[in-house]
Amino acid sequence: MSEFRDFLTDRNYISSYNVFLSGSTVDKDKGIIYVEDASDWKFWEEFIGYYYPNEYTCRPSSKDSKTVTGKRFLETIYDKANEKVIIAVDSDYDYIASKAQANHIFNYNKYIVHTYGFSRESVQLEKRHLQNFFERCRLTLPNTVNLLDFIDKFSKISLSALARYTVLLEQVDYSNTYENEFNACFNILDKKLIDVNLNIDLSAIDEIENSLDVFFYEKNILENNTDEAENFLKRIGVNEENAYRFVSGHVLFNLMKKIHKDSLLQLMKDEIVKVKEEVDRKSIKSKVSHVTNLFKNSFSFDTYCNMRYVDPNDEVHRLILSAIDNIK
Fold first, then answer.
1. Closest to 35 (Cα-Cα) out of 101, 115, 108
2. What local confidence, expressed as pLDDT, does residue 2 receive?
3. Phi, psi of 261 (to 5 degrees)
4. What is the DSSP string of 273-289?
5. Residue 66: per-residue pLDDT
6. Strand duo 56-58 + 31-35: pairing
7. Could you give the CA distance from residue 246 to residue 93 in angstroms, rounded to a whole number?
8. Mean pLDDT split into 10-residue runs, the chain, 328 residues
9. What is the model's pLDDT at position 7?
10. Which helix (H) or strand (E) holds 325?
11. CA distance 215 to 137
């Protein structure tokens, strides 16, 4: 084997690598999962372990004794993936590309598994689970933030945006030339989104639409020429209800985290006002401190996302599980 990448996917190398890293010959028959980043390990071990418990483990890909990470590197060994070496990646917009291009590698190498939704975050963030989590982040006052209304409106414009972006992708042979620029259109983190009544300002969606209109106008992509692309997306399972999971999961994660943080801040303020009205003056300081600590330490958004379990009733989870079931 003259190429370094050949070692990463060779069965004999894999067996030795497993034993070397674990120190146990018990692991010599295990397969390896190569992922983009260490933060993806738990996610992919749980998904692949759903059908193949204790048969695969995530390992770092290395070169010259240094860990090599990222999807671009894994793409260089896509064609070497096999039953012993699973490559697991974020789909980004490759799921859409794979459905439009018959020769896309996703279509003929079943040992490359991907998120279908844009990224790991897209798989973890499902609107009804999110709404339930938000509602449970509270003390004595209800958390009434209108998250579903916001996500539904966000998802509707996401479908329209993805239809136009699909037309643009077709023009550039489905390369990721404009990905960062397109994703940036959904970024409204600098906007005030939560008011004192815990209502999300739905007009913020209009700013996303305006950014998208400018982006596509500059690319000469008109919305009234995208009916065919929107029908194509619906045929592959992307629709108004779930399109929010097929645009940038990183942007979606940051947006949901901001809404969560800002809504908790407002709810905490309301709880403190209530404390000051109800307790005696001597107890106010300790009670306020108690409320503040609870809000700071008890409702972590990151923990919620990382603890999201594999759910065969979730439509995106089902797509991933179906592909994993087909590995053997």
1. 115
2. 42
3. -60, -45
4. HHHHHHS-HHHHHHHHH
5. 64
6. parallel
7. 8
8. 59 77 78 92 96 89 66 91 94 94 92 97 98 96 96 97 95 90 97 96 95 96 88 96 98 98 97 92 92 95 95 97 95
9. 63
10. helix 315-325
11. 37
Q: 121 CB contacts (<8 Å, ≥6 apart)?
A: 249, 250, 252, 253, 305
- Distance between CA atoms of residues 61 and 35, nearest Å: 8
The pLDDT, as a whole number, for residue 328 is 86
> What are the Cα distances from residue 1, in Å, to 10, 19, 20, 79?
9, 21, 20, 15
8 Å CB contact between 296 and 288 = no
For residues 154 and 226, what is the distance between their CA atoms, to the nearest angstrom? Answer: 19
**Amino acid at position 322, single letter:** S
Measured CA distances, 220 to 55, 100, 254, 260, 326 (Å): 50, 21, 29, 36, 41
CA–CA dist 154, 244 (Å, integer): 7
Angle at 185 between CA 183 and CA 187, to 5 degrees: 85
Extended strands (E) in 5-64: 31-35, 56-58, 61-63
Say how many C-beta atoms besides its own lie within 10 A of residue 194's C-beta. Answer: 21
- Read off the tokens for 44: 């992919």
Q: What tokens appear for 294 in the block? A: 């609870």
Residue whose structure tokens are 């905490």:
268
Residue by residue, DSSP assigns 184-208 as HTT--TTS--B-TTS-B-TTHHHHH
| In the block, residue with structure tokens 């992307």 | 238
Nearest to 259 by CA among 244, 274, 237: 244
CB 70 within 8 A of CB 37: yes
Looking up tokens 């990224």 gives: 119
How buried is residue 10: exposed, middle or buried, by Cβ count under 10 Å (0-12/13-18/19+)? middle
